[in-house]
Amino acid sequence: MAKAAPKKKSSAKKAARTSAKTETPAKKKAAPAKAAAKKAAPKKAATAKAPAKRPVGRPPAAKKAAAKKAAPPSRRPVGRPPGKKTAAKATAKRPVGRPPAKKKAAAAKSATAKVAAKRPVGRPPGKKKAAAPVKRGRPAAKKVATQAFTVSHWNEADFKADGLRSYAHYRDLGIAAATNGLCQAHVIRLIPPCTDEVRKRHIHETELQLIYVLKGWIKNEFEGHGEQMMSAGTCWLQPPGIKHTVLDYSPDCEMLEIIVPADFKTTEVA
Questions:
Q1: Which domains, ranges and CATH numbers included, belong to the chain?
Q2: What is the DSSP string of 35-63?
Q3: What gap in Å lies between CA 15 and CA 10, rounded to an integer?
Q4: Contact between 173 and 186 (Cβ < 8 Å)
Q5: What is the mean pLDDT of the chain?
Q6: For the purposes of burial, counting CB atoms within 10 Å of the CB of 107, is it exposed (0-12), middle (13-18) or buried (19 or more)?
Q7: Cα dist. 84→26, 79, 93, 100, 126 in Å?
C-alpha cells in the first residue's frame, strides 16, 4: 500500500499539465482582468458605504469642525463670550463697586480704624502711657509722731479747772506732750451737782475716745444705744461723732479718759 500512493500523485500532476496545455489564449487573457476586478471590488464597496454614514449634504471634511463649533455653546453660560470666562469668575469674587486695586488699601484702612478705636481719645499712637509700677510687699506704715518717755505720779495739786468742761477738774498725765499731740490722757473729776448745762447733747470729732470709771458712777445716753449706767470699773469706747448726753453722776465721780488726737473739736447738737 505504501507504493500505491505515489502513483496517484503523479497521475494528478499529469492531468494538470494536460489541462494547462489545452487552455485557449482567450482564457489566458481573461484571467488577469478578473483578478483586477476582484481587487477593485472592495474599494468600490467601501466608497459606497461612506455616504450612508454621513449626514446628507455635509462634506466629510467639515464634520469635525462642525462638532467643535457646536460643543462650546452647550458648556458656557448663555450670554458669556468664551474668551472672558476667567474674568467673569474674578468679577464675581470681588465686592460690588470696589475696584481690585483698592482691596489692600481698604483692608489697611480698616485695620487702622480698629487700632484707633482701642486707643483712648486724645492720646497720640506713638506715645503709649507707661504702666504704673506695681507696689509689692508690705504697704508703708503711717508716719508716727516722735514719742518721749514720760511718767506722772499722783499729786492733788495737779487737778485744775482748765479743761474742756467747766463742771470738771482735770489732771493732765503728760501724754500729749510726750507724743507730740498724737494722744491725750487725763483724769476727770466731775463737780456736783449735775445741771442743765451739763445735760446738753453734743459730739466729739475724734479718732478714738476711751473712758474708764475710777470712782463713783455716771449715767449717759448714746444715740442708738439708749441710757447706760457706768460705775467704778466700767470702760467704754465712744465712736467718732456719736451723739450723746450726760444725764447724771455721783458727787465722787472720777474717770480716766484717753483721746486721739490730743486736740479735737466738740460741737453741741439738737
A1: 157-268 (2.60.120.10)
A2: HHHHHHHHHHHHHHHHHHHSPTT--GGGH
A3: 9
A4: yes
A5: 75
A6: exposed
A7: 75, 11, 15, 17, 48
pLDDT band with cut points at 50, 70 and 90 for residue 163: confident
pLDDT in tens, 96-134: 555 555 666 666 677 666 655 565 555 655 655 666 666
Helix and strand numbers (H, E) in the chain are 6, 11
Phi then psi for 24, rounded to 5 degrees? -85, 155
Residue 209 cell numbers, joined: 475716745
On whether the pTM is more than 0.90, the answer is no
Contact 200, 270 (CB under 8 A): no
Q: What is the CA radius of gyration of the chain?
A: 67
DSSP state at residue 88: H
User: Nearest to residue 184, comparing CAs of 195, 174, 170?
Assistant: 174
Q: What are the percentages of helix, strand and coil residues in the chain, rounded to 5?
A: 40, 20, 40
Q: How many CB atoms lie within 10 A of CB 198?
A: 19
Q: Residue 1: what residue type? A: M
Pairing assessment for the beta strands 202-205 and 265-268 based on DSSP bridges: antiparallel
As given in the structure block, the three cell numbers for residue 121 are 481719645
Angle (CA) 123 127 132, round 5°: 90
User: Cell numbers 478714738 label which residue?
Assistant: 208
Given a cut of 80, is residue 230 above it in pLDDT? yes
C-alpha cell at 106: 481698604
